[in-house]
Design a protein that fits this description.
Length: 128
């Protein structure tokens, strides 16, 4: 049986978002912004709708929560790690673009519903 390397940074690193994940999210984010602009929408408003639908908090609140939770083992068991949350946001935004519905509200509601299903999050009934 192989020994596991004792790494004192493992708890901190498990919450860190790898640079590769950030880079992979840049193109889909650009596509999402283009979609929102093409519908005459406000990017900040729709970003908050995604965050509210997935997590029940707006983007600023969720980012603050992630900053507070980083490395804290006493967080509630239904905590969504930042890396998982960022993956879910990117997935949801890609779905909005792929659906390409005329009504951005309808596209976001459907994309949020499917993202919650895929990632196993609790349903946030704030957007439906």
């Amino acid at each position: 049986m192989a020994k596991r390397k004792n790494n004192s940074n493992s708890a901190r690193d498990s919450h860190a978002l790898p640079e590769q994940d950030r880079e992979l999210g840049k193109r889909p984010r650009k596509d999402y912004c283009g979609y929102i602009q093409s519908k005459g929408g406000n990017y900040g408003k729709w970003t908050n709708i995604v965050y509210m639908g997935l997590f029940g908090l707006n983007a600023a609140q969720m980012k603050q929560l992630w900053a507070t939770q980083a490395g804290n083992p006493k967080i509630a068991r239904n905590h969504i790690a930042e890396a998982s949350g960022i993956q879910a946001i990117a997935y949801c935004e890609r779905l909005v673009v792929m659906l390409d519905l005329d009504d951005p509200q309808e596209g976001h509601v459907e994309a949020i519903r499917l993202t919650i299903r895929k990632f196993g999050f609790e349903r946030q009934d704030l957007v439906a």
